[in-house]
Specification:
A hairpin with a 6-residue loop joins strand 3 (about 75-85) and strand 4. The chain is α+β, with helices and mostly antiparallel strands and about 190 residues long. The longest helix has 16 residues, at about 110-125. It has helices at about 10-25, 25-30, 40-50, 110-125, 140-145, 180, and strands spanning about 5-10, 55-65, 75-85, 90-100, 130-135, 150-160, 165-175. It is about 30% helix and about 35% strand. Strands 1-2-3-4-5-7-6 form a 7-stranded mixed β-sheet, with helices on both faces. It has 6 helices and 7 strands, in the order E-H-H-H-E-E-E-H-E-H-E-E-H.
Length: about 190
Amino acid sequence: MTPIISLAPLNAEDHAAALQAVYQATPRFWAMYGLPTAPAGEAARDLDEVAQTPGRYLLGIIRRIDPANAQAGGELIGLADFRLYWPEERMAYLGMLMVAERYQRQGVGLQAWRLLVPWLAEAAGIQTVRLGVEQFNPGALLFFQKAGFTLTGESSRISVGSKRVRLLYMEQSLKQSSPANMHSTSK
């Protein structure tokens, strides 16, 4: 059963510790970069960078603790990090969609994406979402294909610590998205 989730903006003052806990709950992600765990203070640094970058947002994926009671609160189990109107006016760049390993393969990431798409398209006027997937991350590649992204044929190399990483770029047009496909079907 897919947990019921919502999305909420994160900030350094209120959410650094909870976001760091999500980072700690994703050891396979950090291992891809040769790290045993998330670096100490990574969440605070990321939240500070978001606050200083125009158009960049970090939304928490919040699991509702009591599915029958929306007022009962929730637990931060993931994040969506994106930047609006970059690299072009009607485009958004999705930097990361991360879900704590305990909640992976339960539909949480797809549900979070489906919650975000209508806001991107309608409220922000975004027509295309672009992202880069690490070449050595076939699970992410398959996930984003399932979410409706297609490979563009473009790639680049970026530095991540002491490693050079090849990113494969993917895009999704929001103009073709059907509103019926954007709503979560989880109960």
